[in-house]
Amino acid sequence: MKRLITSMTFIIALFLLSCSWATSFYVVNKSGMPITEVTLAPGELIKVAEICCSYTGPEKIFADKLNVEELNINTPDGLLKYESFELLKIFKKKDKTKYVLEYS
Fold first, then answer.
1. pLDDT tens digits, 24-77
2. Burial class (CB in 10 A: 0-12, 13-18, 19+), 12
3. Where are the alpha helices (DSSP H) in 19-103?
4. What is the residue extent of each domain of the chain?
5. What is the CA radius of gyration of the chain?
């Protein structure tokens, strides 16, 4: 019985060590004016995408894993349009699981 418990503990520990994480991508309106994809008032944010698993930064291998093909932001200054790999590069890392595009 003790051997079974030890084996199960080892298997559970190995499983927990091998887990990866999901990375979320947000757009934050830090300007004083509203922007739209949906309406995003000043100070609000919206989650626009998520990549699973183990995202480590904007590399071409992750471009196909992003569940968004393009991002268009209508601003008072005009249209901002991002597609494909360029879309990954505009987000800045905030922590291990959160990347943010801050419009200001």
1. 888 888 888 887 777 788 888 888 888 877 778 888 878 777 777 788 888 888
2. exposed
3. 60-63, 84-90
4. 20-103
5. 19
